[in-house]
Amino acid sequence: MSWLVTGGAGYIGAHVVRAMVEDGQQVVALDDLSTGDRRRVHDGARFVEGSVLDRDALRRALQGVAGVVHVAAKKQVGESVAEPLWYYRENLDGLLTLLEECRSAGVDRFVFSSSAATYGMPDVEYVTEDISKAPLSPYGETKLVGEWLLNDCSTAFGLQVMNLRYFNVAGAASPELGDPGVFNLVPLIFQALQKGERPRVYGADYPTPDGTCLRDYVHVADIADAHLAAARALDAGQPGATYNIGRGEGTSVLEVLDMVHRVTGLDCSYDVVERRPGDPARVVASVDRIREGLGFQATYDLRQMVESAWAGWQLRQQ
């Protein structure tokens, strides 16, 4: 079966391409290389340079394809607040254009890389897929509206859709596939240490065991495997669904800092600063549905995430 992976040269997309090629799938990777790197794309995949707003590139990429894994998107929360028009154009106009070309090409399977940002600030122990959605940023809004659009397409013309809402991604399957961005907690800690600065902890008075925020960290290789599982399920005729991707475990900021210290041997003394507006105390995925529906369970632990992220970080500093 042949699948198109959009954003296939990016951090998450390149891992999805790798997982699918190594599973024996025929894969086309589409990327405009605005943030992606052509060298990340597995040699076993066909590469097409272009964005999801480029109809000519989409038509070339969709030739012979039966399904799409749509990873391409702008994804920085703060940037989306500052540039909402850009985010809506890239994330929603891009999805709309892609879906129009999919329909013209007869593509009937679609895996959507969504986000836990669709939930907003859920005040629950475990975030289930069915709780109310209240995204706090244009980024989260574009992901939620994207899910609505896909569900409407499923109703209107039978598109089979898997929506995958992943939580806090970290790590790398190999050093060259490491996260090039410095937006998430682990690379932010690495950056501070590299500069000789003390990492910042935004609030230590939350109602959690050590006073710092709890998040559900999941290895990017597990994220890729979940996308592969969703694609294989659609190939097998399984109906579409919406799933969380996480470990179902909460890890605090201080626990992450402690693990970075253990892995790197560096002094991870930190400064506590004021809370950031809108940071919930706990956001941890309920993972029962994806385990039952796709037979998927995350396998990598926090140490493996930090070790692999550190290897990637060191490679990029060379």
How is the CATH topology of the largest domain named?
A: Rossmann fold
Structure classification: alpha/beta
CATH superfamily of the largest domain: NAD(P)-binding Rossmann-like Domain
Note the gap between the termini: 39 Å
Number of DSSP helices?
Answer: 10
Q: What is the compact description of this entry?
A:
The chain has 318 residues and is α/β, with parallel strands linked by helices.
Question: What does it look like?
Answer:
- There is one protein chain.
- 48% of the residues are buried.
- The mean pLDDT is 95.
- The chain has a seven-stranded parallel β-sheet, with helices on both faces. A three-stranded mixed β-sheet has the order 12-9-14.
- The protein is built from ten helices and 14 strands.
- Helix 1 (11-22) packs across helix 7 (220-235), helix 4 (84-105) packs parallel to helix 5 and helix 6 (185-194) packs across helix 8 (253-264).
- Helix content is 40%, strand content 18%.
- With 318 residues, it is an alpha/beta fold.
- It has two domains: 2-169 and 216-245, Rossmann fold; 171-215 and 248-316, UDP-galactose 4-epimerase, domain 1.
- The longest helix has 22 residues, at 84-105.
